[in-house]
Here is the input.
Amino acid sequence: MTDPALAARLHDVQAGIADAARAAGRSADELTLIVVTKFHPASLVSALAELGVRDVGENRHQEAQAKAEELAALDLHWHFIGQLQTKKARQAARYARSIHSIDRERLVDALADSEFDPATTEPIDAFLQVNLTEDPGRGGVAPAGLEALAERVLATSTLRLRGVMAVAPLEEPAAEAFARLAGYSERLRALDPAATAISAGMTHDYVEAIAAGATHLRIGSAITGNRPEPR
Ligand SMILES: *Cc1c(COP(=O)(O)O)cnc(C)c1O
Here is the structure.
């Protein structure tokens, strides 16, 4: 049974995305909506799937793994968007088709697999998370390290470099932060013209992200409603 309020919120966000794309002179077809379902039960993910959602985002490995296993029959595209421990990387690679939080060379190395066979297995879509603040404690590679990290991904056959990812800092207008991110995306495309994706935009800043060129929106609470307390 699908909750009509969930359907209405999904529809509102889809309409908001279409409006923002139009205002930016872009086509909504260029945009992938990833519904962030963290802390919500698997039943919410299956309700979203019934409404046509194919792309879902999770930020904690154990929770993501459990839901992906339970819902394997739905064949969803699971996006891993949170901090990923090196020692969990290989496990996350079994269910995640995209990882948005590639932020260090050790993590790239942990995702490498000498037995990887491109004839039978798709590589994982890799987004390089860039830190848009001066605080090294926040997630993401410092902008100065972007090219080195990208080269490492390009040398790793299990990964396909897709683009950049970032979370806008709270302490500055999102549009300014996303403008910097667009510049990092250009730097990445100078290395690999195929790495065109920009993963940016959440519930409160997806309009600004679309205006700045985002291609992958990670939207949670505007669609799912308030998150339960993390367990
Ligand atoms: C939780 C989360 C989101 C979604 O946040 P909302 O504000 O609920 O839309 C997006 N990206 C990341 C990395 C997150 O952790």
